[in-house]
Amino acid sequence: MLTNKVLAVLAVAAQILIFSTDTDAACKVPPELQDKDWVYEYTDVSTGETMTKTLSFGSTTIQQGISLEVQGSNINAWTCLSDLTISDTESVAVFKSDITFDTFLNNNRRLYLCMRFTKVTDDLFYFYLMSDKNSLVTPKERVFSPVSEPETNADVCSTYCSYGDPKPMIRTLRKPDTADKLPTDADLCENCGDSCIVSVPCTVSGKEPFTTGPTDGSYNYMDTITYSCNPGYEVQSGNRERTCQPDGTWSGSTLVCAAVKCQDPENGQFTKEQTSPGYNFPDGVTYSCIFGYEVQSGDLERSCQADGTWSGNPPVCKMTIDFFCETLLEKIENKGKSEKRSAESPEESSEIDTRGKGKANGKLKNLRKGRRCGYYKALEALILETCLES
């Protein structure tokens, strides 16, 4: 029986531990603050003196910089309990003390810090401790100390972040050896969960060359617009997505689209073509067949396409029958004139050795030459007849 009771108690304790761990793990310090030391400047709530310390954050903890005495206990370690994101530069985080303290009427009480952060730059934040002054702690500080533990899912602002007059004063966190300055309008933002950003509308007027996207209109803070390049164009610089910022400007830079490039086109066969130092969409190239030739296949006009390839195929030209016949007849005519001139002024023939083997070889050569001449004359006559008929 005792063993069962012990096991039941351990099971409940394990569930509480697991639940508590999951809840705390979900809460995080703003990422720029994590795992760094910061120069912490603030005004002491009791003396009004300007104080400077080092405040160190982990990913979910305050490790150094806020140390308080309460009922004989020194509290200097804090763990993030709950957080609230208000905008991309504003958030609220609640930290609970890692140890408890006892009072005359209550035991195991904790302190809670409600910190409202505003990011100015990556090197500079300011925040407010959004609770009333607590007289139990030394030095007096704006911390929340409830008599009983708040519910696990208690609302952040209404539970931990309430205060009256006087209102909290600004506190700064600055990276060491940096000099970023607070904006002149840095001030306490009320209510706890409301954004202090006073946004200026962003406008769009006109269309960017070779793009698809919004052409006019007014947009609010955090609105996003999207551009894309037209077919045949690709991104040369700039951003496809841009977000409206608090000052009325757009994040990123204007999308610039440039025409897709094509490699030089292939040469055709027996063609000539226009040349260019480079080809972009939708440039074209025109071929032409050389004199006496005509297109057999391919395309005389081709264009650089949106995907960077050429339309059609390189042309192949062949000689026309008219040009062939005209050239052949001209050669035959020139040959006839040449033979006539040779007959009118014959050259002296050299004496041929008719003795023995030399005489036989001479006859064989003349025989072969005669056969070739007869073949060529027959072929020439056939081609000539075809050309004259055409």
Please explain how this structure is put together.
This protein is of the alpha+beta class and 390 residues long. The chain folds into 3 domains: 20-174, no CATH class; 202-259, Complement Module, domain 1 (Ribbon), CATH 2.10.70.10; 263-339 and 382-390, Complement Module, domain 1, CATH 2.10.70.10. 22% of the residues lie in helices and 31% in strands. It has 4 helices and 28 strands. It has helices spanning 2-25, 156-160, 321-344, 356-389, and strands at residues 36-43, 50-57, 61-64, 68-70, 73-75, 78-85, 90-97, 112-121, 124-129, 133-134, 137-138, 141-142, 171-174, 202-205, 211-212, 216-219, 224-226, 228-229, 233-237, 241-243, 256-259, 261-262, 271-273, 279-280, 284-289, 293-297, 301-303, 316-319. The strands form 10 sheets. The protein has an 8-stranded antiparallel β-barrel with strand order 1-2-3-6-7-8-9-13. Strands 5-4-11 form a 3-stranded antiparallel beta sheet, with no helix packed on it. A 3-stranded antiparallel beta sheet has the order 23-25-27, with no helix packed on it. A hairpin with a 6-residue loop joins strand 1 and strand 2 (50-57). The chain is rod-shaped. Residues 1-25 and 348-354 have low confidence and may be disordered.
Question: Could you outline the blueprint of secondary structure elements for this entry?
Answer:
Layout (H helix, E strand, L loop, with lengths): L1 H24 L10 E8 L6 E8 L3 E4 L3 E3 L2 E3 L2 E8 L4 E8 L14 E10 L2 E6 L3 E2 L2 E2 L2 E2 L13 H5 L10 E4 L27 E4 L5 E2 L3 E4 L4 E3 L1 E2 L3 E5 L3 E3 L12 E4 L1 E2 L8 E3 L5 E2 L3 E6 L3 E5 L3 E3 L12 E4 L1 H24 L11 H34 L1
Antiparallel strand pairs: 1-2, 1-13, 2-3, 3-6, 4-5, 4-11, 6-7, 7-8, 8-9, 9-13, 10-12, 14-16, 15-18, 17-20, 19-21, 22-24, 23-25, 25-27, 26-28
Helix pairs in contact: 3-4
